Amino acid sequence: EKGVTSTRMHERATYWYTLSQPKLTGLDKALAEKRLIAAPPPIAAAGNLQPGLVAEIFSDVKFDNKVKTRLDKQIEFNWNNDVPAPGIKGNVYAIRWTGVIRVPSDGTYNFKSAVDDAMRIWIDDKMVIEHLGVAADAHDNVTLKGGMHKIRIDYWNSGSAGRMVLHWSKDQDFAEQPFGRGVLLHDPQAANQVPPPARGMYTMMIGHGHGSEPFYEFTASGYVLIGFDVSTRDGGKVIRSAVPVYKTISGNVRGHTLGHPSPDHKLILAKPGYAVGGLTGRWGDGIDGMSITFMRLKGEGLDLDDTYESEWMGGEGGSQPTPVRSTGKPIIGVFGNAHDNLDGLGLVERD
Asked: pTM (2 decimals)?
């Protein structure tokens, strides 16, 4: 790509200017110093970058007390009165996303944000967007060169319902949309503090496991899956996305968005004393429809004899309804495949 080639040329030039600068004098030294100051910050080679930004979650608004580190492929969060991680009280928290944004071509990009409470965005260490109050529909134009750029997003919430959604668009090129595949990236070496997944046992999967990106979401000890926020498309005939919802000692926590959400969505949560114990699905190219099996929590496990089924979500096309069930252990995570739609979904039992 033109942007990748340009980035590598800048990196190579920076290297040689740095190497030669101590040996230069006069105008040659001044020119080298000027070029070094103007050089863009170094970015890992494109081939080393992986999808998603590194997300650091803090239990305060000063970014001091970090409680969790994870990877987020989109900035698409509506926590409302839930919290993004355990260890957070009173809806007071902050999140810092860092990594690389791949800009497809030179031009002016419009960043649309829905923010509650506040956020700032830096690109190549220059602050380009700032909203210090609730912004339900903010638009900010940023002129960028095609290629790789460092990005940092700081968000904080001081006690109210939380929300942070960020999309972009470019006139004549593409309409408003979430960041596509391969746009938000990170250097794996910079993410080496992301904790390893918890151990668990995998159920079978509804849907299929090919043709889109795999995902794995594991939670910490004390989390139990209690439902999903499910969106549909094509008039409710196909499952578009799902967001897992977990119960913790400090409140409900939403997981990652699996697929791309649509406005047509419904939150399905277990009744008090119950949790997710299984899924039933129909699928063709993706998941056409699904329901959730809830089981009563019993001690450290699930009661296989005390269950109920949620309403059916999505359409009736695809395969015959196929169930997957827990063996009686609580569900602590999910796995599957997703890109534009949710193509496959399975459950992870506590080991």
From this structure: 0.48
